[in-house]
Structure formats: C-alpha cells, structure tokens
Amino acid sequence: MRGDVVDVSTSLAIVIPVLDEAATLAQRLLALEPLRQRGASVVVVDGGSADDTLAIARKHADVALVAPRGRGAQMNAGARACTAGVLLFLHADTTLPDKADTLVLESLQGGSIWGRFDVRIDSQRPIFRCIESMMNWRSRWSGIATGDQAVFVRRDAFDLAGGFPDIPLMEDIALSRGLKRIAPPVCLRDWVITSARRWERHGVWRTVLLMWRLRAAYFLGADPASLAVQYGYVPRSL
User: What is the pLDDT of residue 232?
Assistant: First the structure.
C-alpha cells in the first residue's frame, strides 16, 4: 500500500474482486498503472484463489487482501480497506477507458452520486454488437447497472445504500436498486471493454437467455443462492 495522503472528497479507488485470475491479472493491473500515477488506488480482493492471483495482486496493486468468496462480500471488503471518496467496482475481465478516472470524477461534480459506463464486448462477432446495445439500452431505460458496466459511486451514497448485499448473484442489481432510490445514475457513453469468455464458453444465445431468465426470477423474488447455482457458481464453504 502506498503512503499517500488521500483526499476523501475527490480520490478514486478501483476495487477488483478476483478468483483464480492469475493468467490475465498482471496485464489487467498494469493497464491501470496510468490511473495510479494520477492518484487512483487499486484494491484487489481475492476470494480464495488456488493459483498465483494473490501474489500478482500484491505486486501490482496498492492493496491486496483476502475476503470470503462472493463478489458482493469481496467488494464490500475492498471498500472498507480504502479511504477514497469515490469507489469504482471493476470486474477482473473488464478494461476501463484511458481517462476513466477523469470521466468518473467529473461526472460526479454536478451533484450526481453514482453511475456506470456503456459496455462493449471484446469480440468481432456481429451478434455481440446487438447484445451490448441491448445491455446499454436496458440499463439506460431502467436505471439498473450490471457489474460489467463498472459501477462507480460516492462513498457516502454507497454507505447509505448499505453496500452490496452478501448474496452470490445479482449483487450488482441489488446495489443499483438501492442507489436508484436515492438518485438516478449517470450513464456514461464511454465504453468499458469486457471479455466475451462466458458467452463463448457456454454459447451466446444460451447465455443471454439464461441471464434473462435468472434476472426475471430474481425480480419475482427467487433466492439468489439458488439462481447462482443455476448460473454455475459453486457455493462457498461456511
């Protein structure tokens, strides 16, 4: 951890939950180095990886720690481990635009409390242009953001909303709903680039239809733990 004095009113922390990401994590963290040089801090929270993820994080991040597995629990732990006034939650397979720090801080200067980026999927297949357009349109219309869109939020608003619930799936939807009750999001049109790996591994339309079904079930009151198993998550040991 660097010993910088942190200005809690304008500083930015990028919180990244990880699990077995050793193959690509160093490259992802090195891409954030320009933001670190401009004052952002990078906080990596490992959920108990069986590979070298934690060692890589300790080398390339400001803070690296271990927390109970689950994105919500990991991101809450990352938020508690830093003092920045603005938090940006980034998936390990998502890349920020070059000036993400400036875009985020400027977007919150006018009284807004939270927001997200548009998303682009890292594939040349035309079908993904349709999928990402639907994702961005749905988010702009509903005021709900997904984790792939790199949600950012003022710390005071994050605390007021109660942070992420400790659920194994839909934690991003739940946080968005809480924040939306306070204020609508800023919807930045700048792209974050997210990996197509899950769509490619499980089939594009199969994955899309699965996520539609799981989100509908969640909004109708289904148990997130049951939905997570259907999504493919292995329940963590207590």
Answer: 66
- Domains of the chain (ranges, CATH numbers): 12-231 (3.90.550.10)
Smallest Cα–Cα separation from 17: which of 49, 40, 39, 41? 49
Give the Cα separation of 28 and 167 in Å (integer).
26
Residue 121 has pLDDT above 70, yes or no: yes
Burial class (CB in 10 A: 0-12, 13-18, 19+), 126: exposed
Q: For 43-92, write each residue's pLDDT tens digit.
A: 999 999 999 999 999 999 999 999 999 999 999 999 999 999 999 999 99
Per-residue model confidence (pLDDT) at position 7: 40
Q: Do residues 112 and 34 touch, judged by C-beta distance below 8 A?
A: no
Please, how many CA atoms are within 13 Å of residue 45, restricted to the half-sphere of its CB?
24
d(CA 188, CA 116): 6
The rounded Cα 34 to chain-centroid distance in angstroms is 19
What distance in Å separates the CA atoms of residue 148 and residue 17, rounded to the nearest whole number?
Answer: 12
| Range of lowest pLDDT (108-112, 146-150, 197-201) | 197-201
Q: Cβ contacts of residue 137 below 8 Å, gap of 6+?
A: none
Closest CA to 140 of 118, 164, 165: 118
Task: Provide the whole-model pTM.
Answer: 0.88
